[in-house]
Specification:
This protein is α/β, with parallel strands linked by helices and 307 residues long. Helix content is 60%, strand content 11%. A five-stranded mixed sheet has the order 3-2-1-4-5. Strand 4, helix 2 and strand 5 form a beta-alpha-beta unit. Helix 7 crosses helix 8 and helix 10 packs across helix 11. The longest helix is centred in the middle third of the chain and has 30 residues.
């Protein structure tokens, strides 16, 4: 068979459904290592153009890793984008097999670009950074509870939990630092990123783990990837305001804090923010523009390998 095959996979906790366009492959397999191996064996029998699956809270990660390891082109897409695509086709029913067929059709018509192979070092760093963010969120919750607690025993309980979380966060920070230092590529990029006023170890680690494309894309593409590119809204004579949309939420969160810091300690960002404020721009517009400019500067520095 010379015709390219577009494959859609709908993943759940215990199983995953597979469909293709044209309709030469339709099956359901267990979401286990054996099922993943069996999937790769089936797919290698066909000329695969792209394999598409939705992000499903992590259940898709072992499958995408197995596909990339087998050198099969694969990509994880935003579920909202696929659901909008299904509605646009008039497909309102939703089952595992139907979702797999929709994903296959989406792959054929949209043809999203396949993702690069994530190294084991990249995957480990991403997991460490994600765990630190979880612990930090838990600490924030406990700190908020402490402010509202009045009973002595309750306050003591909350303080003990905060102490444990602080210890856990310190351990994760040490692991992240050691992991970055152990990899020459990470270490070099980390040095470049942290040479920029406003960028600390947590922002650097987040960018290294969640934006491996840094330095490989142009300014418009990197801003859009992070969800910091404004999209125009206008119709006829009505001219609306541009808004940012989509992108990587965790990256935006750390860039927000970095931009707040950079407004005070980074001369380039400080002058840029001051100019926008003098033009009467609202705070949210100013800080979003600073986040975008900071990211573009970092992208250029990584591409040119300059501090």
């Amino acid at each position: 068979m010379s015709e390219k095959i577009y494959v859609g996979i709908d993943v759940s906790k215990d199983t995953f459904s597979v469909a293709s366009c044209p309709n030469v492959l339709k099956t359901s397999l267990p979401n286990t290592p054996q099922g993943h191996s069996q999937l790769c064996k089936h797919l290698k029998e066909f000329p695969i153009a792209i394999v598409v699956m939705e992000a499903t809270g992590g259940y898709e990660k072992p499958i995408i890793a197995e596909l990339l390891e087998a050198q099969l082109p694969a990509v994880v897409v935003n579920p909202r984008q696929v659901r909008d695509f299904a509605r646009g086709m008039g497909q309102l029913a939703k089952t595992d097999s139907i979702d797999a067929e929709v994903l296959a059709k989406f792959a054929q018509l949209v043809q999203p670009a396949p993702r690069g192979h994530k190294t084991a070092q990249m995957t480990d760093l991403a997991e460490l950074v994600h765990r630190r963010r979880q612990l930090n969120n838990l600490r924030t919750q406990e700190s908020n509870r402490l402010a509202m607690a009045h009973h002595q025993k309750v306050r003591k309980s909350v303080q003990q939990v905060i102490k444990v979380l602080d210890h856990q966060i310190a351990q994760i920070d040490e692991l992240i630092s050691e992991h970055i230092k152990s990899d020459d590529n990470f270490s070099q990029k980390d040095k470049i990123l942290r040479s920029t006023p406003g960028i600390g170890p947590q922002t650097s680690a987040m960018l290294l783990s969640q934006m491996p494309e840094l330095g490989e894309l142009n300014r418009q593409e990197i801003a859009s990837l992070a969800g910091l590119a404004p999209f125009d809204r206008s119709s006829g004579k009505w001219i609306g305001k541009g808004h940012i949309w989509g992108g990587r939420k965790d990256v935006r969160s750390v860039l927000y804090m970095a931009a707040l810091s950079a407004r005070n300690c980074n001369p380039v960002i400080r002058r840029f923010a001051q100019r926008l404020e003098d033009e009467g721009k609202a705070f949210k517009v100013v800080i979003t523009a600073c986040m975008r400019k900071l990211l573009i500067i970092l992208n250029t520095m990584i591409r040119n390998q300059t501090n």
